[in-house]
Fold:
Amino acid sequence: MKKGVDFLPTMVGLLLIALLLSLKGVILAPDVAQSAQPSSQQQLLREIYQELIEIDTTDPTGDTTKAAEAAAARLRAAGFPAQDIRVLGPHPKKGNLVARLRGTGGRKPR
Structure:
């Protein structure tokens, strides 16, 4: 495995997307108890979540590639470089998302 690249199953990858988007400043959800109305960031998170759970990824009829491609599109739209986002897998309907989160170079990789 190359440094800086993590291979993740699709559902774990979806959680990674939420984390990456929050790191990019797209999703900064305040405490829900503070407001009865969801913030625009919370609404965006709900839209992303809804989009992904509506894609059938069950085995054997589902298509994890569709979910990975939807997540990849969200990452590209959030400003991640296209060369750092890949969807690949052993079968056309078994794709996984591979995303690279680049560091600043300020610290040595672990």
